[in-house]
Amino acid sequence: MPMIKYEILVQAPIELCFDLSRDVDIHMKTTSDTQEAAIDGVTHGLMDEGDWVTWEAKHLGVRQRLTAKIVEMNRPYYFKDIMVKGAFKSFTHTHEFIEVEQGTIIRDVFDYQSPFGIIGKIADKLFLEKYMQRFIERRTLEIKHIAENKVNES
């Protein structure tokens, strides 16, 4: 199973970074290149433990739906969401927030399993793992920009 890890320093308070990362409206804003839209479940605002959302988006040229649920949360340090229904065989996305002197480290760990057995494993090596890595990096970088702009506006 591929595991993608990414972390970035954000010069903003931990609470702001945590809230931006679980905000459905911010998610749609930070994934506009894949046209992500919340179509069921929590479709606006902040998600909490037990909440779920169905996303519709265009990935790799294909319109898809994916339902994710937040199964663990320890505000403002951590939350974990899992895929309930969608294109992957499974995924777990852990979001960690570490307070440091310069601000907050956001750490994403995305652990997934592709469908279709050996064909899925080949797709991972050829393109899917790199695609998912870039997707997570772009989204987290957008959260960084939003958080730091909010701090600078204050």
TrEMBL record:
Keywords, ordered alphabetically: Cell cycle, Cell division
GO biological process assignments: cell division
Listed CDD domains: SRPBCC_3 (cd07820)
Alphabetized Gene3D superfamilies for the sequence: 3.30.530.20
Domain of life the protein comes from: Bacteria
Protein name in UniProt: Cell division protein
